[in-house]
Amino acid sequence: MPRLTEEMKNIKLILAYLATYFIWGSTAFAISIVVKYIPPLHSSALRYLGAGIIIVCWCTFRKKPLPGGKEWINTLIMAFLLLAVSNSSTSWSCKYLPSSIVVVIQSIIPLMMIVLDRIFFHMEKQSLINYLCVTAGIIGVSLIIFSKDASGANLLISPLALFVLMSGSFSWALGSLLLRLCPKPSSNFYSSGIAMLISSPFQIATGRAMGERMPSIINIPLAAYGGILYLIIFGSIVAFSSYSWLASVEPPSRLGSISFVNPLVALFLGVTFGKESFNNQSVFGTVIIIFVTLMLWVDKIIEHNKGTDRGVIRC
After folding, report:
1. 3-state secondary structure of 282
2. Which of 69, 82, 197, 250 is deepest in the core (most CB within 10 A)?
């Protein structure tokens, strides 16, 4: 394959960033539409079943190598902690929480990774700004959790849904750190496709155990089918492959911008098209969390300029 010219590479970079920013920023909104008509865990399973089949078929056609030996540990961590647990919790939470709040809460995953790394893994030397960001992030999340409705008598947001969402975010943070310890697969795209296929039956089984039942196909509107198709093609294939390529060619200091751009995209979509509304307290909490992720990104840029980059923390 001919080497990309500098101009073509720049165009590819721009397109990859746009895909990662806007598609991943919009997935929660798409999920919130789908789960109105298809049970959350079943819709998540359908998404990853479809995407997994496409990715595995494509990688098999291109003769990409299967994971081998210890590389399967990487695949299984991705299948269970990142997909079966974390993304299932996202789908379930989108049924009971505003989609924009879901993405805002998930943007604290880098903060969870900092805490987990400090207590258990000790992979990175944490800076003072990281600890300040963790403290501010806790305050921001607390403001959202304890926001009251207009009457002042009830919480604005379901505590159970928030607990499930934050548990799923914790699972993603833990899985992301464990993946750093595992041998990297020869083809991360192939490994991800296999992980999607593995996670699907577990999501369906969990959904059935929770009482989920698929509605009749004729009772599912086109909007739900469109949402699933969007999540399969754009959310799980285009955005993921764009992010994977960016991770291989871009410094973490730039890649970290995804962590605070995604919530902004989600807020725009949720407020503009989903008619989602917030009180002053939850808005203030959201501003704090987005500011914290911005500060983490700035810290990454400073480290990169000093030549001491500690690696991207993916949200």
Report:
1. helix
2. 82
Average pLDDT over every residue of 116-135? 82
Both structure tokens of 294: 């911005």
Q: Alpha-carbon distance 69 to 250, whole Å?
A: 29
Distance between CA atoms of residues 97 and 25, nearest Å: 16
In sequence order, the 6+-apart residues with CB closer than 8 A to the CB of 113 are 173, 176, 177, 313
- DSSP codes, 142-206: HHHHT-B-TTSSSBSS-HHHHHHHHHHHHHHHHHHHHHHHSPPPS-HHHHHHHHHHHHHHHHHHH
pTM: 0.86
* Residue that has been written with the tokens 């002042």 in this structure: 152
Q: List CB contacts of 307: < 8 A, sequence separation 6 or more.
A: none
Domain parsing of the chain, residue ranges: 6-306
What's the average model confidence in pLDDT over 225-242?
92
**Region 58-77 average pLDDT:** 92
pLDDT in tens, 3-47: 557 777 778 888 888 888 899 889 999 999 999 999 999 999 999
